[in-house]
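Q: How do we represent a protein-ligand complex in a form that can be generated token by token?
A: Start from the inputs.
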Amino acid sequence: MTYSGETGMAPLTRTAIVGSKRTIHTPSPQGRATFQSWSDGGAQQHDITVGAADTTYTATFLGGSAGSAYKVLYDVNKDGKADAGILRPTNPQGPLWYVPYTGGGQLQLYFGVDGDAPVMADYDGDGTADPVIYRPSNALWYGLGQGGTVRIIQEIMGG
Ligand SMILES: [Ca+2]
Ligand SMILES: [Ca+2]
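Then emit the structure tokens for the protein with calcium ion bound:
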């Protein structure tokens, strides 16, 4: 990643003058993964204004190489604060989702196969985000139905 022209490996931590402007940029693609978003919603390269409090900017990539861990960031329990978690694709039981919730509790489940891209989205409309995977090999989205059954989301959406 690049911070005001200085390139380093993530995580990159820098101290800057409050109120000053900095540019952050992350190269993409990295391996098979392509840039999706920054945690502040900015473009792949964008300016940030340094605030008084410590701020962490996290870049999310999709479609990563086999075996790499993904970051997932979404307000799963709907308390207005993003829940930062990971998906580790390689486990004997299948990819492990682990998302500690802000304010307590956690999501921990095995779902998908190595190579799936993780997405958090409220696809069943109950107001909380659900683990969803996109499988590039067949271009289908999968979500979890009641009791942990795997559902193809196009069927649920009626599309
Ligand atoms: Ca939350
Ligand atoms: Ca839901």
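The radius of gyration is 17 Å. Helices lie at 153-157.
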